Amino acid sequence: WTDAHVAVWLSEIRCAHLAATFRANDIRGDVLLELDQMILKEMGMSSVGDRVRILNGVKHLRQRCSA
């Protein structure tokens, strides 16, 4: 996925405000599925709610990819 794809996905999981953070940290499709709590904290995400939404979204993406 490109930055634009990631931004759309972030919008879908109610985290559109983090698109610039993902872009600044080069989080695109090739690494999106590798995100975990530690990486999100490293990226400066202090909101537990945002981290949970992202990790749940990543979990759903992994399930779609394996199906």
Please estimate the helix content.
55-70%
- The SSE string, one letter per element, is HHHHH
- In the CATH hierarchy, the architecture is Orthogonal Bundle
Mean pLDDT: 93
Low-confidence stretches: none
Question: The CATH topology, please?
Answer: DNA polymerase, domain 1
Oligomer classification = single chain
Provide the structure class.
mainly alpha
Number of domains: 1
Protein name: SAM domain-containing protein
Organism: Trametes versicolor (strain FP-101664)
Domain SAM: 1-64
InterPro entries: SAM (IPR001660), SAM/pointed_sf (IPR013761)
Features:
single chain, 67 residues, mainly alpha
Concise structural overview:
This protein is mainly alpha-helical. 67% of the residues lie in helices and 0% in strands.
Describe this entry's structure for a reader.
This protein has 67 residues and is mostly helical. It has a single domain, classed as DNA polymerase, domain 1, CATH 1.10.150. It is 67% helix and 0% strand. It contains 5 helices and no strands. The longest helix has 19 residues, at 48-66. The two termini are 18 Å apart. InterPro entries: SAM, SAM/pointed_sf.
Helix and strand arrangement:
Layout: H1 3-12, H2 19-24, H3 29-32, H4 37-42, H5 48-66
